[in-house]
Specification:
This protein is an all-alpha fold. It has helices at 18-43, 45-52, 56-82, 87-107, 111-125, 129-137, 145-152, 154-174, 176-197, 223-231, 234-265, 269-295, 303-326, 330-346, 348-358, 364-395, 402-412, 415-426, 430-439. The protein is 77% helix and 0% strand.
Length: 444
């Protein structure tokens, strides 16, 4: 859909909820495919490291940084396109691209081939979440968005289970390369389904009061102006920083946890996946659904209460996240993981939902992309490389092992407290910024 071209009217069923929920389910599956790709690489990372004879920092560069550098740099311009053109087309095309390159990752036989495949996956994945969350904001009204985006976050639980448990079993049975092949084909099918059955809604159509006619689509903004506006919003920036540091803490730790379990307790990739997979699917889903229900309550209509809840949970769960790596008892580590894993999911939906409410309609995809840029630099560049470098440094000449990796993870674990502070700091100005966004006001 190009500038000036007629925008499709919302489907007739959008008011009844059928079309809304259909789109929400499909986009949640796209999110699941995104996360599954991240988790399959961490599940088999130790196998890749041994097969290609890499150090911890080397395998972190190959599996995380290669994807992230292009994901985060391409994400902003792709989000700008999503604020101007058809989000449906961008989502389906991006999914097709990264699914095909996931298959090529499994077919790679050298470091260079896999590096190029992961770069391509990162480019493709940059077109997933920003246009998805922007589109969902035009299928759900402001009061519904935190709950709807929390349901969307269920895709991360499903994807993590697929990438940890299912992919781990495939790797044990057929080798690590086949785990990537098993993820590519479903993504291609899903891309076609989205292109053929999802319609593009009018931007900002759900921002008008229920009884009022839909307002004309808001004017588009240059990318530089959208970024300048966001940088001046204190609560919005604290919200975005809170999400980024939570990703550094939670997803950064989980990036290395399958490898740590394999080294510390002598497990295979499949056995580590059997431990972590159900935690993501069961505990993560329960936490996400419970959060969605909680977000629909009148008590949580005040965004400050949502932020206080997020700050409190992250601060409390920082303690067991530390003891996962401190203990030498697998049973204790499992118990702490059952507490830690749900906390990685509950904040996603509320964060996206609040973000969609504190920025004007014409810059939502850009705001989401900037948030993801910050989060993915944290959890795909800084965290993997930091842990890998510290592990290699501690191991010195004898090679990275469980002990060196444990030290690096223990240093990373306390960053959860830093994330909690940002959520708390965002409570100060969140109401004013939300009101300004909903009213359509943009600061020059």
């Amino acid at each position: 859909m190009r500038e000036g071209e007629a925008v499709l009217a919302p489907p007739p069923l959008i008011g009844t909820g059928v079309r809304q929920w259909y789109v929400l389910v499909l986009l949640s599956l796209v999110y699941a495919m995104n996360i599954a790709d991240r988790y399959v690489i961490t599940t088999v990372m130790e196998s890749i490291r041994l097969d290609l004879k890499l150090t911890d920092s080397g395998v972190a560069l190959l599996t995380g940084v290669a994807l992230a550098l292009f994901y985060v740099t391409i994400g902003i311009p792709v989000s700008a396109l999503a604020d101007r053109f058809s989000r449906r087309n961008i989502i389906s095309g991006a999914l097709l691209l990264w699914s095909g390159l996931t298959i090529l990752t499994g077919l790679s036989s050298t470091f260079g081939q896999m590096l190029l495949a992961r770069i391509g996956v990162g480019i493709g994945e940059s077109g997933g979440t920003p246009p998805s969350t922007s589109m969902l904001a035009d299928y759900f009204r402001p009061a519904q968005r935190p709950a709807a985006l929390t349901v969307y976050a269920l895709g991360s639980c499903l994807g993590a289970w697929i990438g940890a448990d299912v992919a781990g079993r495939v790797a044990d049975l057929y080798g690590w390369r086949h785990a990537f092949l098993a993820l590519g084909v479903p993504g291609v099918v899903l891309a076609a389904l989205i292109f053929l059955t999802v319609r593009e809604p009018r931007r900002g159509m759900m921002d008008a009061p229920r009884a009022a006619p839909a307002a004309p689509e808001a004017p588009r903004l240059p990318l530089w102006r959208a970024l300048a506006f966001l940088l001046r919003q204190r609560a919005t920036m604290h919200l975005m920083m809170g999400g980024a540091v939570t990703a550094l803490w939670g997803w950064g730790l989980m990036w290395w946890t399958p490898t740590y379990l394999q080294r510390a307790y002598g497990l295979s990739a499949g056995q580590a996946g059997e431990i972590l997979g159900p935690m993501h699917l069961i505990a993560g889903s329960l936490a996400t659904v419970a959060t969605a229900v909680l977000m629909t309550s009148r008590f949580m209509a005040d965004p400050r209460r949502v932020l206080i809840l997020m700050a409190g949970v992250v601060a409390v769960i920082t303690v067991p996240s530390f003891f996962i790596y401190w203990t030498h008892d697998l049973a204790v580590a499992k118990l702490c993981l059952w507490l830690f894993v749900p906390a990685m999911y509950f904040y996603i939906g509320p964060s996206f939902g609040l973000l969609q409410n504190v920025v004007p309609a014409q810059m939502r995809a850009t705001a989401c992309a900037l948030t993801l840029l910050m989060a993915n630099i944290a959890n795909l560049v800084i965290a993997p490389q930091f842990v890998g470098l510290v592990s290699d440094h501690v191991a010195a000449g004898h090679g990275a092992d469980a002990a060196s990796l444990r030290v690096a993870l223990l240093i990373l674990a306390p960053t959860g407290l830093w994330a909690a502070w940002h959520y708390w700091a965002a409570t100060r100005n969140i109401l004013a910024e939300q009101e300004r966004a909903i009213s359509g006001e943009i600061i020059a």
